[in-house]
Write a structure and sequence with these properties.
The complex is a heterodimer of chains A (256) and B (555).
Chain A lengths: L6 E6 L3 H10 L8 E6 L7 H9 L4 E6 L10 H18 L6 E5 L5 H18 L10 H16 L1 H16 L9 H24 L5 E2 H8 L3 H13 L3 E7 L2 E6 L4
Helix pairs in contact in A: 1-4, 2-5, 3-6, 3-7, 5-7, 6-7, 7-9, 8-9
Chain B lengths: L7 E6 L11 H9 L4 E7 L5 H13 L4 E6 L2 H14 L7 E5 L1 H5 L6 H20 L7 E4 L3 E5 L3 H12 L3 E5 L14 E2 L4 E2 H4 L2 H6 L4 E4 L2 E9 L2 E8 L2 E7 L1 E4 L3 E3 L13 E3 H9 L7 E5 L16 H15 L4 E6 L6 H13 L3 E4 L7 E2 L3 E6 L4 E6 L2 E4 L3 E3 L3 H8 L26 E3 L9 H19 L3 E4 L4 E3 L9 H5 L5 E4 L4 E4 L9 H5 L5 E3 L4 H13 L2
Parallel strand pairs in B: 1-2, 1-3, 3-4, 6-7, 6-14, 7-10, 14-25, 16-23, 17-18, 17-23, 18-19
Antiparallel strand pairs in B: 5-26, 8-9, 11-12, 12-13, 15-24, 20-21, 21-22, 27-30, 28-29
Classes of the chains: A alpha/beta (256), B alpha/beta (555).
């Protein structure tokens, strides 16, 4: 039997949703796999929504907005672009990527909408079902996706992305403009750190574990894990659980 | 029955055979019946017909429905109708949810009816889960102050003011100079009619004597507060603070010519600017036979990339006026490109050439050089330097944004483009609007505009303004953003993101507040807030997540 992927589409009200309606009016046939959630602007799509979609077994997510420069809300699609870029980077760090497509469809592009849906459905079909449907790897992947989700909820990554356009064009309160390349390095670094931190938190949610054990489970070098544990302790998210033969174990102490 | 019990009614439309001919409606109604909180389901032949709408109204009452879902066509076309129907039956219109099973299902899956029906099931279920979390919302109403403020008393500002005043709206013109008229005051004759600029300036009398217009000269703007329909502006006129109130603001601050100082041996004597030439011609003091005009001085280069739009026509006009006065004068125009758009301007250019005015092209990287008795200019076609004798050189200086445009933009919270001209909401679709409702732009404040462009733009701005001023009350959407002040830490990230300046800082609480009248409900702030402190009504995270979870988990 052919694999029928479950695809979720976020469509902005003004361009891409109208484009999808036009495909209907023009009776352009396309695969039945997409379920649409209408939002007013593609910039409304919180990356957390997409992480949640993957956790819930959705195989692919489409985010469609107005063409750049044509956003009904002037700049919302630029914000969408930054968010999805950040999300894609985050997901690639847990080896879960290539299941999102961000694209632009105008209200006049019924054909283009149908074409994007067809291509994306075919693409997801060729990738096969989401790895969380694989019983063996399910727990590991859900843990990782949860780590990403909580990193996306966390104020650090959100603040960086929210300020990205401001910091790279207008500058900070001192008027210093950060060049985009430098900003990307900062962002990449923050993504990596936050995901590792939330991976650690996932692993010690219910049970105290030692640094070497955590390092082994999440496949990160022990000295890095220790550094993150120190940071998380300073944030009041982790504490020493117990000390066995001089080796401390750590446990998560607060819901993030 | 408790008050907070959710009772959903689902109406599934056949749309004749449009939906019913493809999807299995009876299967869908059976399916919807057992979804959580659904207490009533029905299939209708046409839900949007009077019969269908009556049924919705009746069933709301009969079954105490407090949520209504219609699964039919697109909310883009039919949501207003169904919302109004709910309202007629006493249900808050925001407790209505629409599911699109025609435009995005039956019409696009005509050959796969079974899969299409499965898709419709998912969509209806997602709609039911969202509907359970819908909240009643109220539209916001604001009174409109039926008067206007026009900033700038040049030709654009005066014309906009006159246009509005003739429609019986009170208008205040704020001019920073001591008299009205703007740059027009310094011109001799205007293209393409070659009539006296003073004829056009007669509009000043109309403006100054109009009973609906108040003119504030030598006045500057100190403070701007408020929002569409309700602006409060504080002026400083001779150190007196004057407070004005208005429903809309038109920005018509114009532009100024770049100073010729430091360009091409400018000395104000035999190397002068085009504006100084206007004055010589006006006062009949021109005394020269060999005249050379240099175009694009200080613009269309790395520093100032734009074209100043008016200089080609101005040079043509003055060259022709001189030629008419002194028929044997030798006039050369050194140009990079000549811009004479449309029918009349191109005709004007042809006429200039027929009159014997010489046009010599030069290159940006090899500009003309002024020597004692001649100008040397490299000509690409001849691949050699040509020497042209002169006794007067005229520099065409571009119009540049006013020094204080930055300051005004900050007061009005509207954007500027890279050259400090005011930036409209959309270059093609909303050329005289700002993104901020109730503020408009016209004339050279936007980019260098000639008089006819100033007139059309100012009429356009006045016309756009009346779409607001003609209303007693503005009603705005209820689905806007709201800040949860308990979570907000006042980081202000959202303030910069909001293109409508709808969010501001409340200094007392150190949190931000959303002006619901200005907010358009796009939701970008909510998706960006580091603290997750912004609720996007009608598209809340909970509502969207409910749709996602039920789709994902609904195997």
């Amino acid at each position: 039997m052919v694999f029928e992927p479950k695809i979720l589409g976020f469509l902005c009200n003004w361009c891409s949703y109208a484009g999808a309606d036009l495909a209907g009016v023009s009776r352009i046939q396309y695969p039945t796999n997409v379920r649409v959630i209408r939002v007013m602007c593609s910039g409304r799509v919180d990356p957390v929504f997409i992480a949640e979609a993957f956790i819930n077994g959705i195989d692919g997510v489409l985010v469609l907005g107005c063409h750049l420069g044509d956003c009904h809300y002037i700049s919302g699609n630029y914000e969408a672009e930054l968010k999805i870029k950040m999300l894609t980077k985050s997901l690639s760090m847990i080896g879960f990527s290539d299941r999102i497509r961000l694209d632009w469809v105008s209200a006049a592009e019924g054909n283009r909408f149908a074409q994007i849906v067809s291509e994306f459905t075919e693409h997801i079909r060729s990738l096969g079902p989401s790895p969380i449907k694989n019983k063996k790897s399910k727990k590991e992947i859900i843990d990782n996706l949860n780590a990403v989700k909580f990193a996306l909820y966390d104020k650090r990554l959100r603040a960086l992305v929210a300020r990205q356009r401001e910091l790279t064009t207008e500058g900070n309160v001192y008027g210093e403009i950060i060049n985009p390349q430098e900003f990307n390095e900062i962002l990449d670094n923050a993504i990596e750190n936050e995901i590792i931190r939330h991976k650690i938190l996932e692993k010690i949610k219910n049970k105290g574990k030692s640094v070497p054990d955590i390092a082994n489970e999440i496949n990160v070098e022990p000295h890095k894990v220790l550094k993150h544990i120190v940071t998380l302790r300073a944030r009041g998210l982790v504490d020493v659980d117990q000390i066995n033969e001089e080796i401390p174990t750590f446990i998560s102490i607060k819901e993030v | 029955m408790s008050n907070d019990e959710i009772r959903i009614g689902v109406f599934i439309c056949h749309c004749g055979s449009n939906i019913g001919g493809v999807l299995d409606i009876s299967k869908l109604t059976e399916y919807a019946k057992v979804l959580p909180n659904v207490v009533y389901t029905a299939g209708n032949l046409y839900t949007c017909s009077e019969v269908g709408l009556t049924e919705i109204r009746e069933k709301i009452k009969e079954h105490n429905l407090n949520r209504v879902i219609v699964a039919s066509c697109s909310p883009r076309t039919h949501e207003p109708l169904f919302r109004a129907t709910c309202q007629e039956a006493g249900l808050n219109p925001y407790l209505f949810e629409m599911v699109n099973i025609r435009d995005q299902d039956s019409w696009v899956h005509m050959k796969e009816p079974e899969k299409g029906t499965e898709k419709a099931k998912d969509l209806i279920r997602m709609g039911v889960y969202k509907a359970s979390l819908l909240e009643p919302l109220e539209k916001v109403q604001v009174d409109v102050i039926p008067s206007a403020i026009v900033i700038g008393g040049g030709i654009a500002g005066m014309n906009a003011a006159l246009n509005l005043a003739n429609q019986k709206f009170n208008v205040s013109i704020i001019e920073k100079q001591s008299e009205l008229g703007g740059l027009l005051r310094f011109l001799n004759k205007v293209f393409p009619t070659n009539e006296d600029a003073s004829n056009l300036l007669e509009i000043r009398n109309l403006v100054e004597n109009h009973e609906k217009i108040r003119v504030f000269t030598s006045a500057s703007i100190e403070q701007v507060e408020g929002f569409v329909g309700n602006y409060k502006v504080i002026l400083n006129q001779n150190k007196n603070a004057i407070q004005l109130e208005a429903g809309i603001i038109i920005v018509a601050t114009g532009a100024n010519p770049l100073s010729p100082e430091g360009y091409y041996e400018y000395n104000g004597k035999n190397v002068i600017s085009q504006l100084e030439l206007e004055s010589l011609l006006k006062n009949n003091k021109l005394n020269a036979n060999n005249i050379i005009m240099i175009q694009c001085v200080g613009c269309r280069n790395e520093e100032r990339k734009y074209c100043s739009n008016i200089c080609c026509m101005t040079a043509l006009k003055n060259a022709m006026l001189i030629k008419e006065q002194i028929p044997n004068a030798e006039i050369s125009v050194l140009f990079r490109d000549i811009q004479t758009k449309g029918t009349i301007y191109e005709e004007y250019y042809r006429k200039a050439r027929e009159m014997g005015i010489l046009f010599i092209k030069y290159l940006l990287k090899k500009p003309p050089v002024i020597k004692n008795d001649k100008i040397e200019v490299y000509n690409e076609f001849l691949n050699q330097i040509i020497g042209v004798p002169y006794d007067l050189v005229v520099l065409s200086m571009p119009l540049i944004a006013n020094d204080d445009s930055d300051q005004l933009a900050k007061l009005l919270k509207v954007p500027l483009e890279e050259n400090n001209f005011f930036l409209e909401a959309h270059v093609k679709l909303r050329p005289v609007d700002f993104a901020t409702d109730g503020i408009f732009v016209c004339g050279s404040a936007h980019w260098p505009a000639d008089i006819s462009e100033c007139i059309s733009q100012s009429n356009a701005a006045a016309s756009r303004a009346t779409t607001i001023l003609s209303k007693d009350v503005l009603e705005v959407e209820g689905s806007t953003a709201e800040v949860n002040v308990d979570l907000c830490v006042g980081c202000e990230a959202c303030i910069k993101i909001c293109p409508y300046s709808a969010i501001s800082k409340d200094e007392q609480t150190d949190t931000v507040i959303v002006n619901r009248v200005v907010c358009k409900g796009c939701g970008v702030c909510g998706a960006s807030c580091p603290q997750n402190a912004i609720i996007i009504h009608h598209f809340t995270s909970d509502q969207i997540l409910a749709e996602i979870v039920t789709y994902g988990g609904g195997d």
